[in-house]
Amino acid sequence: MENKTLRSLYMLPYALWIILFVIAPILLVVYFSFFDIEGNFSLENYKNFFTATYLQMTLNSFWYAFLITLFSLLVAYPTAYVLTRTKHKQLWLLLIIVPSWINLLLKAYAFIGIFGTHGAANQFLDWIGIGSRQLLFTDFSFVFVAVYIFIPFMILPIFNALDNLNPSLLYASKDLGASKWTTFRRVIFPLTIDGVKSGCQVVFIPALSLFMLTRLIAGNRVITLGTAIEQQFLVTQNWGMGATIAVFLIIIMVGFMALTSLRRRGV
Amino acid sequence: MENKSSSFANIFLVLIFFILYAPIFYLIFYSFNSGGTMSGFEGFTFDWYRELFQDTRLLIIVLNTLVIALLSALIATIIGVFGAISIRSYKKRRTRNSLLSLNNVLIVSPDVIIGASFLILFTLAGIQLGFYSVLLSHIAFSIPIVVLMVLPKLLEMSSSLEDAARDLGASNWNVLTKVTLPYISPGIFAGFFMALTYSLDDFAVTFFVTGNGFSTLSVEIYSLARRGISLNINALSTIMFIVTILLVIVYYYLTQRSGTKGVGLRR
Known about the structure:
The complex is a heterodimer of chains A (about 270) and B (about 270).
Chain A: H1 2-32, H2 44-49, H3 52-85, H4 89-101, H5 104-114, H6 120-127, H7 139-163, H8 167-175, H9 180-191, H10 193-209, H11 212-216, H12 225-235, H13 239-266
Helix pairs in contact in A: 1-13, 3-7, 3-10, 4-7, 7-10, 8-9, 10-13, 12-13
Chain B: H1 2-30, H2 47-54, H3 56-89, H4 93-108, H5 111-125, H6 131-156, H7 159-167, H8 172-201, H9 204-209, H10 217-226, H11 231-266
Helix pairs in contact in B: 1-11, 2-11, 3-6, 3-8, 4-6, 6-8, 7-8, 8-11
C-alpha cells in the first residue's frame, strides 16, 4: 500500500509532463487546424490543403525526403559494413558519430562557404577542368547537405544490425557455395533489414520537415512541409493553416512508422 | 583477392571520413584567414577570435545557451529518473508499453511540429516567449531521452537488491539513495549528458519559442548565416568544435565505464 502512494509520488512530475507536453500539444495542433486566419471555426484549411499548390508541395517534400533517404542509405550501408570489419570498430564508429554532434547550423554554414561562387567546390571543379558553376541555392546542394547531415544517423542502426550478425551464418553460406553477392543478397541484407528500416525512419521523417536547410542552402527554392509550417506559423502568422499542415505531417509520420514496423513483425 | 578488396574498403572509409570532417576543418581553417571570406586564404590572423571575445552580445548568448542547457538537463534528469522508476513499477506489460510509446512521441516527432505545438501551448498558457519558454521546451524534449537512458539500467537491476535493503530495515528514501540511484548512476550520467547535448544543439524547437530579445547560439548562428559569411562564426565554430570534442571524450569515458559494468552483469 505504501508502495502505491510512493509510486504515484514518483509518477506525478512525469505524468504532468506527459499530459502537458505530449498529449496537450498534439490536441492543440489538431484543434487549431479547424480555425481560419480570422479565428473562425471552419474546414477551410483542409479544403486549401487539397488544392494543387499544397499537394504539389507535399509531393515535392516526399520526393526530396525519398532522395535524401536513398542516398544516405547508399552511402551508409557500405560504410557500416566496412566499419564492422575494422579493428577497433567502436572507436571508428565513435569518430563517424562525432560530426553529428557538431551543431547543425555550423555544418550548414560551412557548406555556404564550400558551395559558394568562389568556394572550395568550385575551385575543385575549375581545377579538374569542368569550370565553376552555381552550386549554392540548387536542389543538388540541398540534397547533398541533407545527406551529409543524416549519414551518421543512418550508419548507426545499420552498424548495430551488422554487428549483431552471427558470423557462422556467413561461413555456412560460403561453405554451401554462395558467391559474395549471393551471400549479401540472401543472408546479410535480409538479416540487417531492421537496421535499414530504423535508419530510414530516422532520416525520412526529419527530412520531410527540414526548414533551416531549405532557407540557408536551397535559398527558398525548395519548399518542404517543414518550411511551409514554419512559414505559416512565424511569417504569415496563419496558425490554422500551419496546424493543418502539421496534422498531415503527423499522419504521414504515423503511417510511415506503421509501415516500417509492421513489416518488421512479418520478417 | 582478400587484400585487394580490403584496400578498396579502406579507401572508401577514408573518403567517407574526409567528407564528414572536411566541412568542419574548412570552417576552422578559414577562421584564421585575414581576408574575410571563406575562399582564398590571405594571411594568418587571430582577429576574428579577438572580435568574438569583444562581442558582449554574443557572449551573453553563449551564457544563455549554457544556462538553458545545464538547467534543462538537470531538471529533465530528475523528472526522467522518477519517470523511469515509476514506469518500472508497473508490472503489466501493456501499461508499461503504452507509457513508453507516450514517452517516445517527442523523440520521433519532427522538430517543426514540436516547436509549433509548443508555441501554441505557451501562447495559450500566457507564458511570455523568452527564457522560460525555451527552458520549458528544452526540459520537455530532454525528459524522454533521460528515460530511455535510465530505464535499461533499472530493468537490468534485480529487484531482490531493493527487497534485501527493505528487509534489512532501510526506509524508502534509503533504498532510493543508497541502492537504486547508485546502481543506475551510469544511466543517469549518460542521460544528463545526452540532454545537455540535445539542448546545446537544438535549433528548430528553440527557433519557434524564442521571442525577441532572447536567443541561443543555434538561433543566432542561423540569423547570422542568413546574412552571409562572417568569419566570426568560423571562430565561434572552432571553439564549439573543441568543446564538443572534449564533451565526446567525457561521454566516451562515461559509457566505457558503464559499458564494462553492464557487460559484466549481462554475462
